[in-house]
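Batch manifest, entry 17 of 40.
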Amino acid sequence: MFKKIAIAVAALVMVALVGTLAAASMQPEDFAIRRSTQVKAAAAKVESLITDFHFWDGWSPWNKLDPAMKKTYSGAATGVGAVYEWVGNSDVGKGRMTITAVEPGKSVTIKLEFIEPFAVTNTTVFALAESGDTTSVEWSMSGKNSDLMSKAMGMLMNMDKMVGADFEKGLSALKGMAEQGK
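Output type: structure tokens
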């Protein structure tokens, strides 16, 4: 009797596992997360807070997760070629950001490489649109969930809500810095 129950339970587990893997394999490969805000400051001011990684301590939501995080800066001082690397606790992991393109007053594009706890590369874009004394700022991150594991993780966690909430915190702090003239 016990053997039949064990076989039935194993069969149910296998069916559930196969079903989950099949559902994960059908998930979209591409993802994008976007949040935006309006800042009462010139686009050049907002851009300067993004293109100089030294300013990120004042507005990035992740820098506050590990006050002891080790940060290094290399490459250009600001703008294209500027590099920011970090190593921190389990909340922030290890990674690197490199500014790959700047269209003055319009956009900043960053190659975002997470190294630990898992390796993945995404693209982050800050789109700026100045109108009068206000600048619209959109922060987006896009990438690919190309393997089955990342697709399965996407089924279990709502990345848009998780990362989107951090984007909202960061944009609020960026807005505060830009409007206070920091």
